[in-house]
Amino acid sequence: MLVVVDVDYPRTLLELKKRFSSDVSCAEYLAALRWHARWSCPRCAATEGWTVRRDHWLCGHCRYEMSVTAGTIFQDSHLPLTIWFRAIWQMTSQKNGISALGLQRVLGLGSYKTAWAMLHKLRRAMVRPGRDRLSGTVEVDETYWGTEESGVIGRLSANKAIIAVALEEDGRKIGRVRLQTIPNLTRATWHGFIAASVEPGSTVRTMASSPIWGWTVTSTSVMCKQNSPMTSMSCLVCIASLDC
Q1: Residue range of the domain that includes 18
Q2: What is the pLDDT of residues 42-85, one digit of tens each?
């Protein structure tokens, strides 16, 4: 039996705990999201089936048994669904998100690695396939992820990860954001990142050096304006360092 999914969102942690107090209620909610009004067997497409365990369904035609979490970020996880649901709520209900250390403390998880892996899965799931590229005026720059390196100055880095960042201007606010790890700071690498992240005809603003930025991306008609004032890049390190 499938439950009807309400469109409301738990506004408080108390509401979340009351609504999803057990793994059974979480599994019923996932089943309703996945199959809406009627269950369907992924093998034979039959609609006759019933639950045989907490989150497993059995097809009445071909006898195929499947889990409601199969093919989702919850598959093969040893954590209860209630923990996953609380992690999702914590991540989406806070304006600035939540770090892996903060999630570990709130959920009482035994290891930082578990909290980090959960956030990594959730963030990947939140990326919409085929999403639109940024448009209008876009600020582009890079930041670095890693510990301080002795004897290394400027843009040189031996062990740090290089993260390319593109921020879409939205009036006086930051609009949509695109982040991507890149292998180096060559012109070809930046060209690829901009072409994948920014709509043709948009204007890119940056404070990067002229050997990289003193050109026009002809394949996408993205014009670079060097040394323009950067109004939003002060948040760049904060955005790229959510797990600090």
Answers
A1: 13-125
A2: 888 888 887 887 778 888 889 888 888 888 899 989 999 999 99
Give dist(CA 178, CA 204) in Å, integer: 13
Q: Which one is predicted more confidently, 216 or 126? A: 126
CA 90/CA 103 separation, integer angstroms: 8
The distance from CA 176 to its chain's CA centroid, rounded to whole angstroms, is 13
The residue among 102, 125, 148 that closes a domain is 125
Q: What is the pTM of this model?
A: 0.62
Per-residue CA distances from 134 to 37, 116, 124, 208, 237 (Å): 36, 28, 19, 19, 20
Q: How many separate helices (H) and strands (E) can be counted in the chain?
A: 8, 8
Same domain, 153 and 113: no
Give the DSSP H/E element, type plus range, for residue 230. none
| Same domain (yes/no): 233, 175 | yes
pLDDT digits (tens, 9 = 90+) for 94-114: 878 899 999 999 999 999 999
**Last residue within a domain, chosen from 101, 125, 149:** 125
Q: 197: which 2 tokens?
A: 């992240």
Average pLDDT over residues 84-98: 89
Residue 5 lies in a domain: no
Q: How far is residue 86's CA from residue 91's CA, in Å, rounded to a whole number?
A: 9
